[in-house]
Fold this protein.
Amino acid sequence: MMTNAWNLDGKRTDKKAWAGENKAAGGFSASKGLDGKLKGEPRAAHKAQHATDVQDEMNLNYSEKQLCEVMRKKLAARGARGIQGLGRQFKIADDDNSKALSVDEFKNAIHDFRVGLNESDTARLFKIFDRDHSGSIDYEEFLRGVRGEMNEFRTSIAMLAFNIMDCDKSGVIDINDIRSKYNAKMHPDVKSGKKTEDEILFEFIDTFEKHHSDNVEDIKDGRVSKSEWKEYYNNVSMSIDTDEYFETMMNNAWKLKGNDKVKKGWGGQF
């Protein structure tokens, strides 16, 4: 694949900038002149692109919900790369390395991410994401604003899994709950002596605790609260298109239907 893509063996002499380029389909060998403009660009394609750009810049009078939805759809269309790209774009736009974006930095990020919002709507989107009204947006605020919340169906499934893990029904999941559900003795790092069983189980807890939560009581304390659990699955949910697939994924991970009697603390179980 890499050889075909980059002509590593030097056997191909006709290098194309995209797949499927051909004359019959209206393709062309684009090159830039001294003025930086593409030569040989089909007029129809140029007009179509111009119309798209104009449409993107129009004030479409989006509601706040629609503004967020536009951003989410752009990310969803890019799959896993959407969130990764968002993180990279955030860092690039953070010119002063403050770990937060000002309104001007935010506008640059949205423009470079090719979301297609005009300046007015981008400024409105900034206010939506600036949850604490500090005048800047940190990455967690940015991510939460784009990602949104699970719907009621997905939330109910996520909390069903939480209740299964919360063995003592204390409202939090601690290492004792996890120890009663999963056996880490056969984990490769435990068998090799690199880690103890408790270290493996605490890594499980860390997976859920590292996600931002609006609940001020959620701190890194070695326990997973309901809000931390939900926050984790809010992030997971964003990359899953359908409720049916989300349900299947959760059942496979947590055996919600009780159809798996062998539970291991490794190998993709968590």
